[in-house]
Design goal:
The protein has a domain of 109 residues. α2 packs antiparallel against α3 and α3 runs antiparallel to α4. The protein is mainly alpha-helical. The termini are far apart. The chain contains four helices and no strands.
Length: 157
């Protein structure tokens, strides 16, 4: 059995250890707040990227209309200009779509990472790894789609 002197030394150590372990995890309320904030930030980032993509698309359409009008006026030179403008427009659109896809992927990753805040230990590590892997997969897909669109734009004849 433990003597009272030994017990009086052990109790503060156990209490401090318990407090330290309890401090490692966020409360569900804190995690919920973090997740809500991450969702809002992701929504804003995606909204801004979507606006940029739409603006790029609108600019491309205007340039194409101008080039088509020029084409009607001067056939050969305008056709070359139209092809060039279309290629540049497709490239701009590919980059804008890429930026949008990356903003969406980052937002999803941020929300997933914030949700991991309530977990601890191995579960938290697994949760963070899953969030990072999902982001990496989304990033790889966005890059592949962008690169394919850039190749198509370069071969626009």
């Amino acid at each position: 059995m433990l003597n009272p002197s030994m017990l009086s030394r052990l109790v503060p150590i156990v209490a401090i250890t318990a407090l330290m372990l309890a401090g490692c995890n966020k409360t569900p309320s804190e995690t919920s707040k973090d997740v809500s904030q991450a969702r809002e930030e992701a929504r804003q980032d995606v909204s801004e990227a979507r606006q940029d993509a739409n603006q790029a698309g609108n600019e491309v359409e205007e340039e194409i209309v101008d080039a088509q009008q020029d084409y009607a006026e001067t056939d050969a030179d305008a056709r070359a200009k139209l092809t060039e403008v279309q290629s540049e427009g497709l490239s701009k659109k590919a980059e804008a779509d890429f930026d949008l896809a990356m903003a969406e992927a980052k937002g999803i990753e941020d929300v997933a990472t914030k949700k991991c805040g309530v977990l601890g230990g191995v579960e938290k590590n697994a949760c963070l790894s899953a969030a990072a892997a999902a982001y990496a997969a989304s990033e790889a897909e966005a890059i592949a789609v962008r690169d394919a669109a850039l190749v198509a734009a370069a071969h626009n004849d």
